[in-house]
Amino acid sequence: MAIDPNFERNREQVDEEDGVAVWGPVDPPETRGIHGIHVAVDFDICLADGACLEDCPVDVFEWMDTPGHPESEIKAHPTHEDQCIDCMLCVDVCPVDAIDVDPSRANRL
Ligand code: F3S
Ligand code: F3S
Known about the structure:
The protein has helices at residues 7-10, 51-55, 89-93; strands spanning 13-17, 20-23, 34-35, 39-42, 62-65, 74-77, 99-101. It is of the alpha+beta class. One FE3-S4 cluster (F3S) is lined by residues 39, 55-58, 60, 84-90, 101.
């Protein structure tokens, strides 16, 4: 299952972490929601492959601890999504399609 590109319509923003929007449902430790707006990562799909952190030319992502999550205990948090240049590398390299990037959402940051 890939991240829902229509998460803004289908989910509600329930929180903010490090200045990044969090879209529910959120029920830790098992359910962590989607993090981000311009660069969105579904924490419940991310399994900490790390390719997005390695390949992003402008270092948008940072590891965030998610202890007790069934997929992985760290996640790629789009901490610096405001720096994204829409190269789409992260979308291409993520093995589980956990990332959605939409330039049209950038002006909502
Ligand atoms: Fe980086 Fe992905 Fe944007 S690789 S520049 S966060 S499209
Ligand atoms: Fe996670 Fe995919 Fe990045 S599994 S760490 S979002 S490449």
